[in-house]
Specification:
202 residues; alpha+beta; 3-stranded antiparallel beta sheet; two-stranded antiparallel sheet; 5 helices; membrane; transmembrane helix; transmembrane
């Protein structure tokens, strides 16, 4: 039996699992005047007020600026890793020691940056164990870091409550994730959430 669609626009329990949800916590999806939109959020995320302008307070970087900044971070990191390898290999006379030192250097860098770009610190182990995987992951990290404080990737489940999905201010149809306090005072969102909870209690 097909469940009836919600009567009006707004945030509703998603008809199917969304990123940041699960079978037990399916998350929410936004319904506009015509049907389901592609805006989703985890079940525990804060719902912005209906009259809140759904665009971040500061514009995100353009694609060119983002890639340029990412390259400015990526190339020095690659150079530093190569420098560690050559330096340790020269000091010890062992090329393998250079590779091991580079792996430790890269793993430490990944563990430090991972939480900022929706990765886990334990991903550093995978990077250290798989040769040259750091080049792929490093560029991915750099592009994500270059876009902060905005995101165009979904937050992990444990990050979801602090982020909401909003419309891109300059690219029609595109979506971003921003921290709740970047679109409205955090107290406003928390107070609204508390009011909903009070109304739900019989």
């Amino acid at each position: 039996m097909t469940e009836p669609l919600p009567a009006g626009p707004g945030w509703h329990p998603a008809p199917s699992p969304v990123r940041g949800g699960s079978a037990l916590r399916p998350g929410r999806r936004h319904r506009d005047g015509e049907g389901w939109s592609n805006r989703t959020m985890a079940a525990g995320a804060l719902i912005p007020p209906a009259d809140l302008a759904l665009s971040p307070s500061t514009p995100p970087r353009s694609s060119a600026a983002r890639n340029a900044l990412a390259l400015a971070m990526f190339l020095p990191a690659v150079g530093a890793g190569y420098g560690v390898h050559r330096g340790v290999a020269w000091l010890t006379g062992l090329d393998r020691a250079g590779y091991a030192a580079t792996a430790l250097f890269v793993a430490g860098l990944v563990a430090w940056l991972a939480p900022k770009v929706s990765y886990r610190r334990r991903d550093a182990v995978w990077v250290a164990a798989v040769p040259y995987s750091a080049l792929y992951l490093g560029w991915r990290f750099a592009r994500r870091l270059a876009y902060l404080p905005h995101r165009d990737w979904p937050p992990r489940d444990d990050e979801a409550p602090g982020w909401i999905q909003v419309s891109h201010p300059t690219e029609p149809g595109a979506l971003l994730y921003v921290q709740a306090c970047d679109t409205a005072p955090a107290a406003q969102l928390v107070g609204m959430q508390d009011e909903r909870r009070r109304r739900a209690v019989p």
